[in-house]
Design brief:
Length: 84
């Protein structure tokens, strides 16, 4: 399933995530997946360089039906891995 960020999500920066251990900033356009496994697609800033169409796979601690991108972003992530 595909989850789009709403205008309100973007205004409140729900679509943004900073991964401190990697010093990477992510800005999501949308999320795809279901259950526990998802892919965040958007842009990333790594070492000052911006990468578009950047994908990050991740797994959530709890597999359930999520209704919105906000629900997914606010859930506990078990792990993540960069695809691009």
């Amino acid at each position: 399933m595909r989850y789009e960020f709403t205008e309100n999500d973007i205004k409140n920066e729900i679509n943004k995530l900073y991964l401190e251990e990697d010093d990477v900033s992510l800005e999501g356009k949308f999320i795809e997946g279901d259950g526990k496994h998802f892919t965040l697609t958007g842009s990333a800033v790594i070492d000052g360089e911006k990468y578009n169409d950047f994908e990050t796979d991740f797994e959530l601690a709890e597999g359930r039906n999520y209704n919105t991108a906000k629900d997914i972003m606010n859930a506990d992530w078990l792990w993540y891995d960069y695809k691009c």
